[in-house]
Specification:
Pfam families: AstE_AspA_cat. With 307 residues, this protein is of the alpha/beta class. The protein has helices spanning 19-27, 35-46, 93-105, 124-129, 151-160, 178-192, 216-226, 256-259, 285-305; strands spanning 51-60, 63-71, 81-86, 115-119, 167-175, 206-210, 240-241, 244-245, 251-254, 270-276. Strand 7 and strand 8 form a beta hairpin. The longest helix has 21 residues, at 285-305.
Amino acid sequence: MNTEPTPYPIGTPGTPWGDAERAEWLSRQTRQRSYESEVVSVIERLRSRFDVEEYGHLDYGSDGYPLMAIRSRDWRDDLPVVLITGGVHGYETSGVHGGLQFLDQHAEAYAGRVNLLVAPCVSPWAYERIHRWNANAVDPNRSFREDSPAEESAAIMRLVAPLRDRALLHIDLHETTDTDESEFRPALAARDGKPFEPGGIPDGFYLVADTENPQPEFQQAIIKAVEPITHIAPADDSGEIFGSPVVARGVIQYPLNELGLCASVTSAPYKTTTEVYPDSSRSTPEQCNAAQAAAVCAAIDYALAHR
């Protein structure tokens, strides 16, 4: 029985993509939803309660996208800063809408206690195409470093730079989906000329802590808050989640700075990346959004109590 995975339809196995392969990949990407109507319109409705700013602009051919951020209206220099990012991978829907739900339903409870800075959709081109990469086949969430190859990442770094050392907390809202295994990991292997090694998708919510500063009690406070809303991913038979050792229930670790991940953009003592699983038969889109919002609330509550 042949169990070899089907070669990715673009490129030659073992050979990294060049310009022709990237152009072919781009030609296959189609707009499937609207950033303007689904995200920007929601942000505009929040303008009466928060300060809204355009912190950059993406231009991909004839497609242009304003990069939008929302700040606390009662911003005070003596308050700690909380950074919330979503949609670094545009296809991870609840990262975008969970962040917006937090703003709409919960953010005003923190008025006068923290300064909130929220970038709910870091990658709007990819949001519209339900994709992980930007239009140049670059993953923004491996590009948060000097001379970033992704304008999405560079724009966030410019936005955050004045606040980098004042941040108390950064929570970056993500999802792990079945398409990670069916499309995005095979595409990555093909792009880089490497063999695709099939894996498994974790069934449930989990967190990615910083290897250099894991803050285990902080991570568990978030797991506890999310569990009533959606189930927590168990470790697999190897004691791992998505190829990384489970260090505590529902928690793995990555070296954030080394990998150029979004959660590395501040020196905040409290950092985490959420991973919601939207493809479970046990989860609805509403639960996924609510889980993201609950994670943000729990993270802020813990950080304020232990600052």
